[in-house]
Specification:
Blueprint (H helix, E strand, L loop, with lengths): L7 H20 L4 H13 L3 H17 L3 H6 L1 H18 L8 H10 L2 E4 L4 E3 L7 E7 L2 E6 L5 E7 L4 E2 L1 H6 L5 E5 L3 E7 H10 L1 H19 L11 H10 L1 E5 L4 E3 L7 E7 L2 E6 L5 E7 L4 E2 L15 E4 L3 E7 H9 L2 H26 L1
């Protein structure tokens, strides 16, 4: 396996050798060793496509002269070129470029390469596996499932991208089907190798988790009737700023009078507003379920900037929290979302204040 980069001096020396072997090939066209040397230098220079073309020429020349044994010996060179191409894909992976060359070499030599035909499944929804995957070549489609288990196309993964990292990191079931759009190759990274990689390079795990969380948030944005209509680039921006938070049943999420600092999207479970009456007792008010937004009043210029009632998780609740200032910037450029947030804030505050006032009289 070659190094991912060469110094200027190394490149100059290799280019000089390549030019010399080209001249020798022209002077002695029947001597195949000079052509083979060109191929070896091209591999060192990472010019793999050129090396592959010369290898085809070399094999053709040897076969035409009846040197079939010599032609067969070039199979090792072809395997090496294919290995170098795969290695190049590893180095180009956004996260693995942080890894040491020793790790990548071992990963390349020992990890399982999976060849997929068009229509083959790499991952099935609900499966639990102890590995993640890197797309080496080809394209794979990601299909999510809704609550009725109906499939929905999400996006296509291309060469250099990592698949299944969030389920791997959190040891959770696979949240989507991944199917080859055409003939593809992926590299499976098992748990032991990944853990070693993370120990050697903590930044890789952080980058993987951040990327996977961003993609997951983009999927969850679709459960909100207003957010899912935003342009994809806006959804992508939101996904980079959001974070997941989970609350247990009957846990208080926000308190009455607390300053609103985030806009929260409910993606699992439901919450209720709980108001306090004059006599000190509590009253259960309206409930908000999956797809609802919390804290909208703080994003509007003339509404309350604090919670008008406690917000309590009724069952296990998962929220995506977006920083308030960031969300307000998004609203400025999206009138439809701004109107939806305003209506939600007015309805929420008006209904709650009216209910509490009525209960106190």
């Amino acid at each position: 396996m070659t190094k991912p980069t060469l110094s200027a001096e190394e490149k100059d020396a290799l280019e000089h050798r390549l030019a010399m072997y080209k001249q020798l090939s022209l002077a002695y066209p029947m001597e195949h060793r000079h052509l083979q040397k060109q191929i070896e230098v091209l591999i060192l220079l990472h010019r793999l496509d050129e090396a592959e073309l010369l290898l085809l020429q070399l094999r053709s020349n040897l076969s035409s002269r009846g040197m079939h044994d010599e032609a067969d010996k070039t199979n090792d060179i072809r395997k090496h070129i294919n290995s170098e191409k795969l290695c190049k894909q590893l180095y180009s992976t956004p996260f693995l470029h942080l890894a040491s060359s020793n790790f990548l070499e071992k990963a390349f030599l020992t990890h399982r390469r999976i060849e997929l035909k068009e229509g083959d499944y790499l991952i099935r929804y609900g499966d639990v596996e102890n590995q993640m995957f890197i797309v080496v070549k080809g394209e794979l489609a990601v299909w999510s499932r809704d609550e009725d288990r109906k499939k929905h196309f999400e996006h296509v993964m291309h060469a250099g991208e990592v698949i299944g990292e969030l389920a791997f990191l959190d040891n959770t079931p696979r949240s989507a089907d991944v199917i080859a759009c055409k003939d593809s190759t992926v590299l499976a990274i098992p748990s032991k190798a990944a853990l070693k990689l993370f120990l050697e390079n903590p930044g890789i795990e952080d980058a993987l988790r951040k990327s996977a969380t961003s993609r997951r948030i983009q999927l969850d944005l679709k459960c909100n009737s207003h957010l899912n209509k935003l342009p994809k680039e806006v959804q992508s921006l939101l996904s980079t700023s959001g974070r997941y938070v989970t609350y247990q049943p009957l846990q208080r999420i926000y308190r009455f009078g607390q300053t609103i600092q985030s806009i929260d999207l409910i993606i699992a479970g439901y919450v209720r507003h709980v108001g306090e009456l004059k006599d000190g007792s509590s009253v259960m008010l309206n409930s908000l379920k999956k797809g609802a937004l919390l804290g909208c009043s703080a994003a509007t210029p003339h509404m309350n900037k604090t919670y008008v009632a406690d917000i309590v998780a009724i069952d296990e609740v998962t929220l995506i929290q977006f920083p308030l200032d960031y969300f307000k910037e998004i609203i400025k450029t999206n009138p439809r979302l701004s109107q939806a947030v305003l209506e939600s804030a007015e309805s929420e505050q008006g209904d709650l204040l009216q209910t509490i006032t009525r209960s106190n009289t």
